[in-house]
Amino acid sequence: MATKIYAALLRGINVGGSRKVPMARLRALLEGLGHIGVGTYLQSGNAVFTADHGDEESLAAEVSGALEREFGFTVDVLVRDAAYLRAVADACPFPADTLQGKQLHVTYFSAPVDAARFAALDQAAFLPEEFRLGDRALYLYAPDGLGRSKLGEALARPALTKGLVATSRNWNTVTKLVELTDA
Known about the structure:
Blueprint: E1 4-10, H1 23-32, E2 36-41, E3 46-51, H2 56-71, E4 77-81, H3 82-90, E5 104-109, E6 130-134, E7 137-141, H4 150-155, H5 158-161, E8 166-170, H6 171-181
Antiparallel strand pairs: 1-3, 1-4, 2-3, 5-7, 5-8, 6-7
Helix pairs in contact: 3-6
């Protein structure tokens, strides 16, 4: 198999002082799994690496298992290849180039989602906030940022994400991951 560049998106680490995963240890862990070109971005669980084996699901399971062995707690991990990350950025339905990075977010999902999952959500009640679905992704426009977003809070309800791994990144991180995985 040819080598491929991926990003690993870790969910729920280094938030509020718990579930600590130092980035230096994450880099060492990925290198210990045989990956090369390993790098991290921010402390929120974004890593890039080149692998010569596996696919997104098997690599996510491999990284998640290694994290649990190393740190003693379960970490949900999504792995996405460079082409997918680029496609998500290119497909953004909002005018990303006119918005601040904190106003636009992408939630990456472990599987495709359809509109029926969100049908009970009254989108008009949250305006000017909006969301659109993409391929295993949800784009959220939150003009006041995610921390103040009522729609973001509603979208994070367990009933809407049941059976999925979901992790969000602001637009600055989305574009940085595209840049870091661009070969």
